[in-house]
Design brief:
With about 240 residues, the protein is of the alpha/beta class. The chain has one domain: 4-Layer Sandwich (Metallo-beta-lactamase, Chain A), CATH 3.60.15. About 25% of the residues lie in helices and about 25% in strands. It has seven helices and twelve strands. Strand 8 and strand 9 form a beta hairpin. The model has no long low-confidence stretch (mean pLDDT about 95). The protein binds zinc ion (2 copies).
Length: about 240
């Protein structure tokens, strides 16, 4: 199941970044600079029962810096030190163009080290659906979540959203739902009480619900006390 290099929001030092390993590939959802700082402390084979990792794949939700700031540096690192190819998965054509500009034009990554592909064009058996959502007005139309299959389980991952209802149709019996959650009232995020209001639905589905992108862990912990909501599981911290 998904593990997390970090589960915090933008103004924390552990930006939300999830990963899992399948077919000797390290698959990440987003990669901030704080995730990069944690990745370089690991021998990647330890994430794969000692087997060598053959490729790094990063599925991007949107281009805020707490989600993509580590991608070019990880590409440089993988190319020069690990000698591993990186595939960046874009959820839409527009995001693909933005990512190419960022990685190629702004950061000058060696084109031999990476490719940027559209989610629908790759052969990713774990990637089931790209889910459009709404988040920041400046990025309207360019924010997404994902429906994945990990270890035979359905995973619904919101990315950053102010419209959690976009993800409800994807929730099924026994699914794993990773949703952003904020304490503070904001037009761009989903407050914890919005998630608590869905508890009956989660119970009906026996859904496993994990909170991520937390702006104030301690205060949110108090708010969810007595519920079945849990925090996203951190790896190696
Ligand atoms: Zn964010
Ligand atoms: Zn964001």
């Amino acid at each position: 199941m998904l593990k997390f290099w970090g589960r915090g929001s933008g103004f924390t030092d552990n930006h939300t970044s999830a990963f899992f390993v399948e077919n000797n590939e390290l698959i990440m959802i987003d990669c901030s600079i704080t995730a990069f700082a944690r990745i370089i402390k690991n021998d990647l084979s330890t994430l794969n029962d000692g087997e060598e990792i053959k490729r790094i794949i990063i599925a991007v939700t949107h281009t805020h810096s707490d989600h993509v700031s580590g991608i070019p540096l990880l590409i440089h690192y993988a190319f020069y030190l690990l000698h591993l190819p990186v595939t960046v998965v874009a959820p839409s054509k527009e995001v693909l163009e933005d990512l190419n500009y960022f990685i190629s034009h702004m950061d000058g990554c060696d084109p031999r080290g990476y490719e940027v592909v559209l989610a629908g064009d790759g052969d990713f058996t774990w990637l089931k659906e790209v889910i459009p959502t709404s988040h920041a007005p400046e990025l309207e139309g360019r924010c997404f979540g994902y429906c994945l299959e990990v270890e035979g389980k359905r995973v619904v991952y919101t990315g950053d959203t102010n419209r959690i209802e976009d993800f409800i149709p994807y929730l099924t019996e026994e699914c794993y739902f990773f949703t952003e959650c904020s304490l503070h009232i904001s037009p761009v995020h989903t407050e914890v009480h919005m998630i608590l209001k869905l508890q009956d639905l989660f119970d009906k589905l026996n859904a496993h619900v994990y909170l991520m992108h937390l702006d104030d862990e301690e205060a949110i912990k108090e708010r969810i006390a007595g519920s079945k909501l849990e925090f996203a599981p951190l790896y190696g911290i």
